[in-house]
Structures are given as structure tokens and as C-alpha cells.
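> forwarded from #structure-qc
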């Protein structure tokens, strides 16, 4: 699955990347070069961050479900036959 960003987000990220490279590494990129670098980073690094976010979400949901299950168990009442 390809990571797709909307045009305003892509443009803003490319500008941010351009500013960062200029201020931190004294490297000047044009708009097209920054966009190509952004696309490269998104395709190579993006999936790792995406997968980590999924792992984090899964762990959070698992903890919440366990707490919910525990809460439901506490609501049980003893039943006499």
C-alpha cells in the first residue's frame, strides 16, 4: 500500500524539509527536489512509522479491553440456585 498525502500536506512537508535541510545541513533544495526527497522518505521510512503506530494502537486497545472486561466482571452478582 502506498502512503498518499493530500496536496496541501505534501507541500507543507516539502517546505518544512527544505527549511530543515537549509538550517541544519546548509543544503538548498528546490521545490521539486524536496518533493522527491519527501516521497522517498515516505516510501522508505513511512511504513516503519505506520507499523509502529499500529502496534501502539493494538497495545492500547488491548489494555483498554482488558480493563473493560475486568470492570464487567466486577459487576457480576452472585446467583443462588
Amino acid at each position: 500500500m502506498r502512503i498518499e498525502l493530500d496536496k496541501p500536506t505534501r507541500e507543507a512537508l516539502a517546505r518544512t524539509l527544505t527549511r530543515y535541510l537549509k538550517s541544519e545541513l546548509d543544503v538548498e533544495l528546490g521545490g521539486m527536489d524536496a518533493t522527491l526527497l519527501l516521497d522517498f522518505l515516505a516510501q522508505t521510512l513511512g511504513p516503519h512509522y505506520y507499523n509502529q503506530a499500529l502496534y501502539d494502537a493494538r497495545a492500547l486497545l488491548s489494555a483498554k479491553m482488558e480493563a473493560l472486561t475486568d470492570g464487567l466482571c466486577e459487576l457480576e452478582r452472585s446467583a443462588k440456585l
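QC bot note: The chain has one domain: 7-74. The chain is about 75% helix and 0% strand.
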